[in-house]
Amino acid sequence: MLNIDSIQNGIVIDHIQAGKGMRIYELLELGKLDCCVAIIKNARSSKMGKKDIIKIEGDLDINFDVLGFIDNNITVCTIRDGVLVKKENIVLPKRLKNVIRCKNPRCITSSEEGVDQVFVLCDEKAHRYRCLYCEQEYKHHE
């Protein structure tokens, strides 16, 4: 069995749906960090069967909207001096800003520089979002 050391100070992003860990790594731009980042893919889980886990050593502000957009069942654990000090459950964000891009070539976000990419949750059950400006629906497979 693979052994991953515990962290003394940092964040553990847990209960990520198996296979989505790398997408979170990319969207949070964790590759740009100058600290230790561990990605555990397909870890055994009694609750989920398989899951991904990301461990980040050091202080970091996490964009919870990115996490909630990818998988709103994620938990974020803050570790200080080797002890769990905070555990947060992620929720589906009502509004996304600069997380995803509108694919509509006629949208103002495609033609004007500096306009934020803003999407609003339109169907909570189906996790569907629409562009605030042009109403273009974002499809998760894009």
What this model shows, in words?
It is a single chain. By secondary structure, the protein is mostly beta strands. It folds into two domains: 10-89, Aspartate carbamoyltransferase regulatory subunit, N-terminal domain (Alpha-Beta Plaits, 2-Layer Sandwich), CATH 3.30.70; 95-138, SH3 type barrels (Roll). 13% of the residues lie in helices and 38% in strands. It has helices at residues 21-27, 64-70, 108-111, and strands at residues 10-17, 37-45, 49-57, 75-80, 83-89, 95-97, 118-123, 128-131, 137-138. The protein has a five-stranded antiparallel β-sheet, covered by helices on one side. Strands 6-7-8-9 form a four-stranded antiparallel β-sheet, with helices on one face. Strand 7 (118-123) and strand 8 (128-131) form a beta hairpin. The chain is elongated and about 50 Å long. InterPro entries: Asp_carbamoyltransf_reg_N (IPR020545), Asp_carbamoylTrfase_reg (IPR002801), Asp_carbamoyltrfase_reg_C (IPR020542), Asp_carbatrfase_reg_C_sf (IPR036792), Asp_carbatrfase_reg_N_sf (IPR036793). Residues 2-90 form the Aspartate carbamoyltransferase regulatory subunit N-terminal domain. Keywords: Metal-binding, Pyrimidine biosynthesis, Zinc. Residues 96-141 form the Aspartate carbamoyltransferase regulatory subunit C-terminal domain.
In CATH, what is the homologous superfamily of the largest domain?
Aspartate carbamoyltransferase regulatory subunit, N-terminal domain
Q: From the alpha carbons, calculate the radius of gyration and give it in angstroms.
A: 17 Å
SS summary, helix count: 3
**Beta-strand proportion:** 35-45%
Cα distance, first to last residue? 35 Å
Count of separate structural domains: 2
Mean pLDDT: 89
Helix/strand structural class: mainly beta
Largest sheet: 5 strands, antiparallel
Strand order across the largest sheet = 2-3-1-4-5
Please identify the oligomeric state. Answer: single chain
Please write the string of helix (H) and strand (E) elements.
Answer: EHEEHEEEHEEE
CATH architecture of the largest domain: 2-Layer Sandwich
Name the helicity range.
Answer: 10-25%
Uncertain parts:
none
Keywords: Metal-binding, Pyrimidine biosynthesis, Zinc
InterPro entries: Asp_carbamoyltransf_reg_N, Asp_carbamoylTrfase_reg, Asp_carbamoyltrfase_reg_C, Asp_carbatrfase_reg_C_sf, Asp_carbatrfase_reg_N_sf
Domain Aspartate carbamoyltransferase regulatory subunit N-terminal: 2-90
Domain Aspartate carbamoyltransferase regulatory subunit C-terminal: 96-141
